[in-house]
Amino acid sequence: MWDRIVKLVSAETVADSGAKIIDLDVSEPITTLTTILQLTNGGAKAPNLPPARIVSNIEIFDGGNTYQKLNGQETIGTYWLDTGIYPYRWLCEIELNPQIDAMPICFGRWVGDTEYAFDARRFVNPQLKVEWSKDALHGTGTLQLTVLAHVMDGVPVPNKALFWKIIESFTSVASGDKVVYLPCDYPYQKFGLRVWESLMNPQVNINNVKLACDVDRLVIFDMSHTLLQREIENLWGKFIYSKFDKVDDADTREHWGGAKAQIDLRWCQETVGGAVHSGNTWLTYNAKTNAGASASGQGAEVTVQGFMPESITCWPFGDMWDPGSWFDPTPYQTIRATVTQGNAGAACDVMLRQPRPFPK
Q: Domain range spanning residue 136?
């Protein structure tokens, strides 16, 4: 086997908002498919606005059948959960500076998996759809889109691939249970829950998550949102990324690292002070001059070591590399995810990663 990169879209300048559909007319199995968005900030700093945030949809479909569908930030988070590799990111909020996000999809148990890979020849008309809308703080006319397919030559023809898909989206309310019914068709490799509200801990919005079959005939798990996150720490360890901020004293910034994230800070000017890890998803800067006065407009390089990628918690079924150990839902009539809410305002997505056969 040897592999190579096929450019499906190469640094194409695109509109400030819109959608692009790309034909996946590749003749070799694809192990990863990466969407890259680059933009330039406008004349003012652009805090908390990485390119992935403005990507509302990355979708793989064939006619009326959707196989993969996540937003940009979820694509980044699930790729780390699937591969242990954190995608390339160049994040800088400073005015007139570029930002870049790579948003890869892995179709196998690992990059280079020849048994589970996307084979466009086994579909009728497979396509990738990317949708985005820039923020007002991003520069007008600066967006560039690239799509890369990592293909494998000289490998057996695969007959299935692993896909993530949002089962249901909802906005959390102050209390009560949200019940989401999951499909009983293909095996479950991973269950995912993304809970996102800016400057709010996900465990405040969602208190508990339960997954059960046939009215508790089988309870797969029933645990607090905090404990569910601890499972990520136990199984995956931590990811690392850096970003550049431009802040005033007492400014807050999101960090997307989850609870217990470690924040390392290096000031770019003669500034003293540090950054306080205020919550699961944000930090507060303490920027002072040498004389002890509050400083403003200070450049800071922040390195985040985290455990909760893009505010996603995850439950793996069995051995993630052994298909025989994945959860088989077909013997059950109903499978329900019961999400107990504790605070209103979070955007929540219930997701599954499943192996799906090809249509032909």
A: 1-158
Contact at 8 Å (CB) between 239 and 305? yes
3-state secondary structure the chain: CEEEEEEEEEEEECCCEEEEEEECCCCCCEEEEEEEEEEEECCCCCCCCCHHHHEEEEEEEECCEEEEEECHHHHHHHHHHHHCCCCCEEEECCCCCEEEEEEEEECCCCCCCCCECECHHHCCCEEEEEEEECCCCECCCCCEEEEEEEEEECCCCCCEEEEEEEEEEEECCCCEEEEEEECCCCCECEEEEEEECCCCCHHHHEEEEEEEECCCCEEEEEEEHHHHHHHHHHHHCCEEEEEEEEECCCCEEECCCCCCCEEEEEECCCCEEEEECCCCCEEEEEEECCCCCECCCEEEEEEEEECCHHHEEEEECCCCCCHHHCECCCCCCCEEEEEEECCCCCEEEEEEEEEEECCC
The pLDDT, as a whole number, for residue 275 is 62
Is there a contact between 360 and 123 (Cβ–Cβ < 8 Å)? yes
112 shares its domain with 18? yes
Q: What is the pLDDT of residues 216-228, one digit of tens each?
A: 999 999 999 999 9
Higher-confidence residue: 3 or 360?
A: 3
Residue that terminates a domain, selected from 117, 140, 158? 158
Considering Cα of 254, then 252, then 288, then 97, what sign does the dihedral take? Answer: positive
Domain count, the chain: 2
Q: How far apart are CA 358 and CA 260, in angstroms?
A: 41
Q: Of the candidates 134, 158, 182, which is a domain's last residue?
A: 158
What is the chain's length? 360
pTM: 0.96
Task: Give the mean pLDDT of the chain.
Answer: 93
Higher pLDDT, 37 or 199: 37
In the prediction, which pLDDT does 279 show? 59
